[in-house]
Design goal:
Layout lengths: L1 E8 L4 E9 L11 E8 L6 E6 H20 L6 E5 L3 H13 L4 E5 L3 H10 L5 E2 L3 H5 L4 E4 L18 E4 L12 H5 L2 E4 L2 H7 L1 H6 L3 E4 H6 L10 E4 L4 H18 L1
Parallel strand pairs: 5-6, 5-8, 6-7, 8-9, 9-12, 10-11, 10-12
Antiparallel strand pairs: 1-2, 2-3, 3-4
Helix pairs in contact: 1-2, 1-9
């Protein structure tokens, strides 16, 4: 799978295209499933200004958006963070979530337990490795799903009422991470309605109603409802790569 994600931001004076390849490895591989490159152009004349590591930008901007959603939507006294998955996005989410929020306990589960153990041993603070997704999720206040699952691995009857879920995996219309019960009994937020209704199997196959885009909450036109059980379905937007790439380029230019 080869994705092409062009975007232009007048506010940031930035024009980019991200090229991302996705290969589903049937066996564990040293090569990441997702690899990406961001091309940054001069919007005034089309000149290529920079080639950036799109994998790093994707990991960090995705986790940053999840962190924004979590800040707005998580319960007032969130003590337990649960991460399902142990790949690149698990690391980037762990880094920013433990930097911005104070959790008393962090749990992780992964289909291949060895990867979860490796994750726990390589991060800076204690992480509890769980033997099942249900064990990891039970009682968690904030849940992050960053898996390669194509059928649900998170079920509504496991989830603590009032919890917040960031659903980052399952980016195809026939893939799922969350079951129907969770999707239909939660308040659903998305990054883009159009994208969610064409790309997200969790949204399309469950028939769940979208309550708001995250941008509407940030602008104050829709409420956050942190007292409810909330799901933020993250698919990623090209403009996020554009803003991030321009930020990196400007910082590099200033350093030079």
């Amino acid at each position: 799978y080869l994705g092409v994600m062009p975007a232009y931001s007048a506010a940031d004076d930035a024009l980019t295209t991200k090229l991302v390849t996705f290969y589903e490895h049937l066996k564990d591989s040293s090569v990441p499933s997702h690899q990406a490159t961001v091309l940054l152009f001069d919007p005034s004349n089309g000149t290529l200004k920079a080639v950036l590591d799109g994998s790093v930008i994707t990991a960090k901007r995705t986790a940053a958006v999840s962190a924004i959603a979590t800040k707005l939507l998580m319960p007032a006294f969130a003590e337990v963070l649960c991460i399902l998955g142990a790949g690149v996005q698990a690391y980037s989410h762990y880094d920013i979530f433990t930097e911005l929020f104070t959790f008393k306990e962090v749990r992780i589960w992964n289909r291949t337990k060895e990867k979860a153990v490796k994750f726990a041993s390589s991060v800076s603070s204690p992480v509890r490795v769980c033997s099942s997704a249900q064990e990891a999720v039970t009682g968690a206040d904030v849940i992050v799903t960053v898996t390669m699952a194509t059928t649900p691995i998170l079920f509504g009857d496991w989830v603590k009422p009032g919890a917040h879920i960031n659903a980052v995996g399952a980016s195809r219309p026939d893939w799922r991470e969350l079951d129907d019960e969770l999707m239909k009994n939660s308040v659903l937020f998305v990054d883009s309605r159009d994208a969610a209704l064409t790309e997200s199997g969790d949204v399309i196959l469950s028939g769940a109603e979208i309550f708001a885009e995250l941008g509407e909450v940030l602008k104050g036109t829709k409420p956050a409802l942190p007292e409810k059980t909330t799901v933020f379905k993250s698919l990623g937007m090209a403009v996020e790569d554009t803003v991030a790439a321009k930020f990196v380029y400007d910082a590099w230019s200033a350093g030079n």
